[in-house]
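Technical note accompanying the year-one report. For the benefit of new consortium partners, we illustrate the data format agreed upon in the data management plan: each record pairs a sequence with a structure-token string. No post-processing was applied to the example shown here.
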Amino acid sequence: MPQNITPYKDSTLGKKEQVTQMFDTISGNYDGLNRVISFGIDVKWRKKVLDIVSKKNPDNILDIATGTGDLAILMTKTKATKIIGLDISAGMLEVGKKKIADKKLDHIIDMVIGDSENMPFPDNHFDAITVSFGIRNFETLEKGLSEILRVLKPNGIFVILETSVPVKTPYKQGYHFYTKYILPIIGKIFSKDTVAYGYLSESAAFFPYGETLNNILRKIGFIDVIAMPQTFGVATIYSASKK
């Protein structure tokens, strides 16, 4: 199991409640700050997720840890008739709802507050499920993945976009320097929450990636598990399916 990193070290709240508090606090400037931190490359990664999901021609899609809805909005290009964005942060969802309304996508996308580890959806319900930069925030990773497997249809597609750690020199050294020293400084300059981006970099460093995460997915019951490293390994796209 991955090390359980939490945002606020001195808090008596559980990880789930701390993550909710953190994202509520930073929701207003989350999108802009992410573009700065990733140099805009995260947009390219999400488009690759779109390409993978589009090949399955899904009719309904669930985007977990949807945040402000970037990936859910992008998924409308699949021609799915219904997309649900699920998140535990009301603050993030409110920002997303405004973006969706501005784009006149309310009839396709529903933004729902909820817990990814205890979802209010029936078994075998979604053709495709996505999660971008969200599974490392699960309080209990295996429980969250088991819930995803439960609500995914047989032969459905599950795609994860998550940070990972480069293994080759000099990218590995550059990544560690950037995430340990530069990213928290950027976060403190632009965010009201001075610890939020320290947590995001720390959780990324300790979260399982590559074959380690592949094996966790297989243990839960997913099949056809593939990991596709992106941009020297600073992120990885995973795809999996269900029997």
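Partners are asked to follow this layout when depositing records. The longest helix spans residues 171-190.
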